[in-house]
């Protein structure tokens, strides 16, 4: 169980962080930032592969896509890793074009691995869109807060940077957090009143302040409400050009989001609901 959770978290951090880098101008922040982010994402992908070696045979219960999908995901992750490492050395020549390719590979992998989570007993497979959207939303939230934190840290090193990169990064995090909150609200509303009995029962169990419900409300408080409040504060702080204060809040928010998304994967594992 834990290997799947950590595999998902590290993959989401990696893919989501690439979007932050894509939105930032190479000319504004410099080549060194892009190289560092490429290496950081490569390390996160390496940790994901160590956490869950997709090249090994997965249990039959976890196979929802056709046989060999795990090998396809593993191959795409390796290709993404190679593109990031090679591109980091050629960034002066090719700019950030290699990051678009790496990000596209990452999105494909997210869709594939969203099907590696088991379905709760007695429950039919969740809709394709819900499973994929949950993983993409998680990746955007995790990656955007990490990307914004690294971007803010860059201002502690280079005080002459324009405020635009951090403004874009903080705005992306705010948008990703809002979308994640709305997704969870919509998903729980749909699941609670679903005609599928097991799905509805599991959703209603999560709404109680006992058992798994305690973990769900902790997930909401720590991983959704807290980050949403911080996201607004961070964006307003960046508008005031107080980069050091914004970066400090981002450090704390990274921890909150990581814990919240870990709770989310744990709940999905046992309830079949990709909250």
List keywords for this structure.
Formate dehydrogenase/DMSO reductase fold, single chain, mainly alpha, 275 residues
Describe this protein's structure.
Helix 1 (about 1-25) crosses helix 6, helix 7 (about 165-190) packs antiparallel against helix 9 and helix 9 (about 210-240) runs antiparallel to helix 10 (about 245-270). This protein has helices at about 1-25, 25-30, 30-50, 70-95, 95-115, 130-155, 165-190, 195-205, 210-240, 245-270. The model is unreliable at about 55-65 (pLDDT under 50). It has ten helices and no strands. With about 280 residues, it is mainly alpha-helical.
CATH class: Mainly Alpha
CATH topology: Formate dehydrogenase/DMSO reductase fold
Can you write the helix and strand succession as a string? HHHHHHHHHH
Number of domains: 1
Report the sheet with the most strands, covering strand number, pairing sense and barrel closure: none
Low-confidence sequence ranges: 55-67
Query: What Rg do the Cα atoms give?
Result: 19 Å
Distance between the termini: 17 Å
User: Which architecture would the CATH scheme give at its second level?
Assistant: Up-down Bundle
Helical content, roughly?
A: over 70%
Structural classification = mainly alpha
Shape: globular
Strand content: under 5%
Total number of helices: 10
Overall pLDDT level: 86
Number of strands: 0
Short account of what is shown:
The protein has 275 residues and is mainly α.
